[in-house]
Design goal:
Mean pLDDT: 80
Shape: globular
Largest sheet: 5 strands, mixed
CATH class: Alpha Beta
Low-confidence stretches: 107-112
CATH topology: Nucleotidyltransferase, domain 5
Strand order of the largest sheet: 3-2-1-4-5
Strand content: 25-35%
Distance between the termini: 18 Å
CATH architecture: 2-Layer Sandwich
Amino acid sequence: MLFVGIDVSKDKLDYFFDNSIKGIVDNSIDGYEKLVSIFKDKDISFALESTGIYSKNIFVFLKAHGFNELFFFAPSDVFNTRKILNWPKNDKLDDLNLLENLLVLDIIFHIN
């Protein structure tokens, strides 16, 4: 399984996966379709920051395209992880931050 962190903002989606591959797509249908084309045929878990209406559309789109491992993280989770890791506030790091949160969640589920 691959894990993907997506930092959602009004205009763009920053994504990070496989410990090295990152990119940016528009927060629009075109951007969603590009994400689906990148990740189709892969076993993926997505971590998204819950940003209200901005994250709802991508969530629904990914779900409709067969991606069932979708997890929302509260902005406070992202903030707390950033604080623990001593990372600055940075959209380029927030997608990695979400990925780290998802990896921890995966470890917890597999331990229990």
